[in-house]
Amino acid sequence: MPIAQHSQPEPPPHDLLALEAVRIRDAAKPLLPSLQRDAMLRKARLIETASHINDWLTSPGLRTPC
Q1: Is 26 part of any domain?
Q2: Which of the residues 1, 3, 12, 53 has an alpha carbon 20 to 30 A from that of 64?
Q3: What pTM value is reported for the model?
């Protein structure tokens, strides 16, 4: 008889963005200063900014303009 596998719920998109930013920063840490490292850090900052914007847009205190 097959065993039912319980899938874990997928984290919200903003959590995935934050995790991706941390993963990229960790991957860039051991690199020497270079264009590749700068690009990775820039990408991590952009992802963090996207996460913050998403948090702001989905906040309960945000009101539509009149």
Answers
A1: yes
A2: 12
A3: 0.72
